[in-house]
């Protein structure tokens, strides 16, 4: 690269590297910036699909194929986690809502909960797991298998529980999800071929910075009306926010307990992945044609999604320290 071009690109690369180094702090700050500056949301809302596509590309671009194949050779845990996040979660959500009559009492929130349950885990989940010191490889492999299935499972559960609630047919939803995932995978494959995996690994920190900027684009687009909703109807908005936090941490806790036999560190990694649902993928697939209450719930879920990694970091560090102490004790007893 000519010296002039190198100088031009040096400043933005340093800025992106600094941003990527902020890790979970930057991820947490995203939601507060999105709420504090509503005009950004108004400008960026038309670009939700593009932001999700870029996030998908970055995640597929960074897939460690060696680690992926290694986990797939021992598939029992991956199969169990995939079945839980793609079938177990939406089935339980749908049955609870149906049996309690929640689907008829609050159709907008029911639609939001079902889309949340049907969604695959967020593509940023492996990066977030790595940021807080958890097993990112296990998260990545389960994410790949879950994402591959979601066009089919989402279409199935939309047929079972949503009926005419969606503005598109379940088949169209599945096809749109498949198109988004296939297109982003193709783009990521081309990027890997052109630049090479070595260059991608070397530029991990600035790529993390780009990831955070795209997260800000998505969060701003989704959360642009939160401040006005809070002023207009504070009781309802706070109630929906509490519901978003309750659903998030229930998924986190239940998944962690469900997989505790594989060790709490790995179980917590899976819990983080399952609770981080890719609502943006559903927004992109439905082209944002959703009721206002569904939009509000999606917006407020960004708070636990972005704050939880920061809050969970101390817990993850304690689990890692306990695991290291156990390994050292075991090694000492055998020597």
Automatic annotation (TrEMBL):
The chain crosses the membrane at residues 26-44, 50-69, 76-98, 110-131, 138-161, 173-195, 207-224, 236-259. The keyword Membrane applies. Keywords: Membrane, Transmembrane, Transmembrane helix. Signal peptide: none annotated. It comes from the Bacteria. InterPro entries: Na+/solute_symporter_sf. This is Na+-dependent transporter. It comes from Bradyrhizobium centrolobii. The lineage of its organism: Bacteria, Pseudomonadati, Pseudomonadota, Alphaproteobacteria, Hyphomicrobiales.
